[in-house]
Each structure stands twice: as structure tokens, then as C-alpha cells.
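User: Let's play a game. I give you a shape written as C-alpha cells, and you guess the letters that built it. Ready? Here's round one.
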């Protein structure tokens, strides 16, 4: 089954926005201008790349569907759960908060689905407008993380006020998730956070500083990067990769210039047309004679 040109445009553009946000749409537009035929649009990707795109769309679809289920279902209030954080906020309509919830809809669904799979109870803080999952031990160890509009938190030995402060800190990552999703897709913020954490660990992390170090339980240890053996090796490998890519691009351009038809030598001498007098006296005629 071959999709029409308009259907392929809509499907490709929608997938680019869902997976890559504004940058994905820009990349898709650039690809169309430089690679599509003039009269017919045929989009073909290698199987590996197509599988990655399909997997990303499936993850987004699963997260969005589960988030919708959680929005429809009745979720207990965190006010009735022991040890659950309670944050007091204004009950007025907040357009920015609604935009953050919409932008992080699939990520929140993935977080809630993970909490359900781990058997962690999920409650809803009415005053703070976010979900909290206690005992949801994460892959990064005993650390509370924010995944869109849900907080995955282990059980800490802390007071109710300290837990509320931690919840406020994790909720501060929600606008970061939303902005990252809009700019680069749902996987942009985790990638940016991991890179920042690699060079600026713990309290040096810019995202953690924006969310609040004190409420997150961090002690300020400075703002500069940490350049250990791993960081220096990564920078060296990245520099070598950039140099190789630049040399490869230059070699490719030089090869394309040398293969242009106008630059190739002619296969042999071309005949020259000269005017030879006609022996019958009727005039002259043009004949092709080889050049000596």
C-alpha cells in the first residue's frame, strides 16, 4: 500500500514533531528540501532507522494511553496517605501549568506505568496538581526523580516537611521536562540532564540548581565542571570524531568536483568542418576532415 504525497507529508511531519519537537520538524523540513524528488515524494528509511522511529512512537503512544487511563480513573488523594508530600498552591487556573501537563503527557504516563509495574501506590496531590508514587525505586538508585508530571520517590527517613520540600524540588523539574519536550522531543530533557550530570555532577548540575539545591537535599559544592579521566577521554574522543567528520566531508566535496562532466578530458580529437570546393563547379560543400 502506497500512501499519497499529502499522507506521507502529514505522517512524517507528525512523527518528527512527536519524536523531535521543534528541532525534529526543522530537520524533517530540511530533509524534504534536500532529498525529495521534484515531482514525487517517496520516503524510504533503512530498516534499523525505521525500527528506532517505530519504537519511539510506540513508547509515546503507550505513555499517552496510560496517562489518559490514569486521568479517567479515580486516584486517591495524597492528603490521606501517610508520609505523602503535601504542597500548598493557589487553586486558580494556571495556563502555564496546563501547558506543562500537556507537553509532558506521554512521559507522565510512562512514569505512572512504571510505578504500577513496581507495585508502588500512586496518589494525587490536589493542591500541587501532580502525582506522587512512593516506594517506586528507580533505576538510578535511592533518588527521587521527576518524570513529567509524576514523582517517583523511595521511602525516605524524613519528616513530612522535608518530604514536602523534596516534592517541591522535584516538581521544579516539570517545566524543564516540558521545555525540553517542546524543543527536542520527550527524550531531549533526559539526554540533556545526563550530559550535564556527567560534567557537572550532583549539586553542580544546572537543572538541579534551577530546581533548588536546599529543597533537593544537596549541599553546594561549587559550580565548575569536574574534569576527571572519564570526562577528558570523552572530550578527546568527541574532538577526534569532529575532525574525522570534517575531513570526510572535505574529501567528499573534492571527489564530487573531480567527477563533474565538464572537468573530464575529451576522449579524442574532434573532427573539424572545412569548406572544400566542389569539383563540378556548382559551388562548395562542407565536409568533416580529421585534423592532422
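Assistant: Ready! My guess for every position:
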Amino acid at each position: 500500500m502506497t500512501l499519497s504525497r499529502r499522507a506521507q507529508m502529514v505522517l512524517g511531519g507528525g512523527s518528527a514533531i512527536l519524536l523531535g519537537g521543534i528541532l525534529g520538524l526543522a530537520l524533517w523540513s530540511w530533509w524534504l528540501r534536500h532529498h525529495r524528488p521534484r515531482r514525487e515524494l517517496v520516503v524510504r528509511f533503512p530498516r534499523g532507522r525505521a525500527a528506532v522511529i517505530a519504537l519511539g512512537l510506540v513508547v509515546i503512544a503507550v505513555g499517552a494511553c496510560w496517562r489518559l487511563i490514569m486521568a479517567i480513573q479515580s486516584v486517591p488523594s495524597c492528603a490521606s496517605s501517610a508520609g505523602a508530600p503535601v504542597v500548598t498552591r493557589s487553586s486558580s487556573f494556571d495556563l502555564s501549568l496546563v501547558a506543562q501537563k500537556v507537553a509532558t503527557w506521554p512521559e507522565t504516563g510512562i512514569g505512572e506505568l512504571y510505578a504500577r509495574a513496581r507495585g508502588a501506590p500512586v496518589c494525587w496531590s490536589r493542591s500541587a496538581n501532580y502525582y506522587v508514587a512512593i516506594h517506586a525505586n528507580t533505576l538510578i538508585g535511592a533518588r527521587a526523580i521527576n518524570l513529567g508530571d509524576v514523582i517517583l520517590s523511595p521511602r525516605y527517613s524524613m519528616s513530612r516537611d522535608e518530604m514536602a520540600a523534596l516534592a517541591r524540588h522535584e516538581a521544579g523539574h516539570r517545566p524543564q521536562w516540558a521545555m525540553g519536550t517542546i524543543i527536542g522531543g520527550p527524550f531531549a530533557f533526559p539526554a540533556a540532564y545526563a550530559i550535564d550530570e556527567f560534567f557537572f555532577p550532583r549539586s553542580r548540575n544546572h537543572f538541579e540548581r534551577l530546581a533548588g539545591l536546599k529543597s533537593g537535599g544537596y549541599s553546594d559544592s561549587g559550580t565548575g565542571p569536574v574534569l576527571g579521566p572519564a570526562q577528558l577521554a570523552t572530550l578527546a574522543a568527541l574532538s577526534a570524531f569532529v575532525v574525522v567528520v570534517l575531513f570526510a566531508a572535505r574529501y567528499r566535496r573534492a571527489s564530487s568536483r573531480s567527477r563533474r562532466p565538464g572537468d573530464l578530458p575529451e576522449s579524442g580529437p574532434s573532427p573539424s568542418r572545412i569548406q572544400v570546393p566542389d569539383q563540378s563547379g556548382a559551388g562548395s560543400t562542407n565536409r568533416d576532415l580529421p585534423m592532422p
